[in-house]
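User: Quick one: structure for sequence A, then sequence B.

Assistant: Sequence A:
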Amino acid sequence: MVDNEPLIRSGIVHALSSAEDIQVTTQTAVADALKTVQDDPPDIVLIDCTIAEAVDLCAGWELSDRPRVCALSSSSQGEDVTFALASGSAGYILKNTAPDHLPPLVRFLSEGWTVTSPEVGHSVMASFHHEYLRHTSMAPIDRLTDRERAVLVVLACGLSNGEIGTRLHLSLGTVKDHVRSILSKLGVPNRLQAAVLADRAGLMATQLAATPRTAAALQRDPITGSP
C-alpha cells in the first residue's frame, strides 16, 4: 500500500486486513516504495497515482516478476483515468470506495483482472461507446471528397439540387453527380439517410456560422424539418 497520507494508508490497510486471504506486506510513502518493493516484491501494489512521482516510480520497477500495480485516486476525471490505464495500471480504484468492496477488488487483481470502481467503469464504457459511435459515424463520411462534404451539408439542410447549385456555384448536372456519388459512398438509399449520417458525424454543427438561411435550416431536425 503506497500513499503519502498515513491516515489513508492505515484506513485501506485496515479494510484489507479484515480479509483472511489477504496479507498486507507493507504500507509506505511513495519516496520509500521503490526500495520496499524491490526488497520484498508483493503480488499487488496499490498506489496513489495522483502523486507526480508515482508514474516514474512504477516505470522504475524492473523486477523479474513485476507486481500488478493498481492506481488509487480521489479523482474520477476521464483524463486521469485514461492516463493511469495508459501508463500500465491494472485498475483504477477511487478512495471513496466502500471498505468492504476493497478485498474483492484485490482478489480480482490477483487473478489477472482489470478492476475499476463503478463510477470509473461506467465513465470508461461511456467514453468508449461515444468514441465508437463517433468513429463509425465518421467512417463513411471519410470517403467523401471536400466538395462532396460541402454538398452533403447543404443537402442535409433540405435544399433542392437547384438550390444546392446556387449555394455552391455548381451546375445542376454537377450537383446531381455529386449527390449520386454521396449516396453511393455512404451506402444509403436516399437524401434523408445521408442527412442523418451527416448530423451524427458532426458535420452540421460546424456549419452553424453559415448564412442566416443555412443556419436556420441546419437548426431544423434533419428528419422532420421541424425546429
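Sequence B:
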Amino acid sequence: MKTLHTAVMALAAVLSLAAQAAFPTAYAPVEVQPQVSASGQYEFDLRPAQQRARREGKALYVYLGASDCPYCRKYEQFLAANLRELVPRFAPKYLVVDLRSQLSVTDRQLILRTEALRLPYADFQRAIGDQRARLLVYPSVWLLDAASGKPLMQMPAGAGTFQTVPEQIEILDLVE
C-alpha cells in the first residue's frame, strides 16, 4: 500500500509540473498532446492546426517544449513577462502550436505528423529542409507554412532561443 501511495504521489507531482509547463495562454496556443503508442512513440499530429491556420490565413508557430525542461520554462517566462510587446506581433500572423513533451523522449520516439509527412524528429527535420537536423533540442521552434508544412525560415533552437524582445520581434516580423 505504501508503494502505491508513493507512486500516486509521484504521478501527481509529474502531472502538476506538466500542467504548469506551457506556452502562456495569452498567446492563445493550440495545445497538442502526443498520442503515445504501445511501442513508446510520442506522435504529435499537426494536421488540425495546419487546417485551422489555413482557414485563418496564418502561419504556424510550432513550439516543442518539455514539461521538465528548465530552458523551456525560461522561454515561457520570457513570453509571459513580455505579453504587451509580443502578443500583438503573434496574433495577426501566427497560430501558436504548443507541443507538450518530456526530456526523456528521444529523437527516435518523437514523431511529427503534418498533412504531408509522418516521421521521427531528425527525419522530419531533414524532410522539411531544416538545417537543424541533429539531436533533439528543447525548446525548439518552427515557423511553418500552413499549406506546405515547410519552414518559412531557419530557426534557432535550445537555450539561446530569443533572449530579448527585439530578437523575438525580428523573427516574427520576417514572415509577411
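The CA atoms of residues 16 and 111 lie 25 Å apart. Residues 2-20 have pLDDT under 50 and may be disordered.

User: Thanks, that's what I needed.
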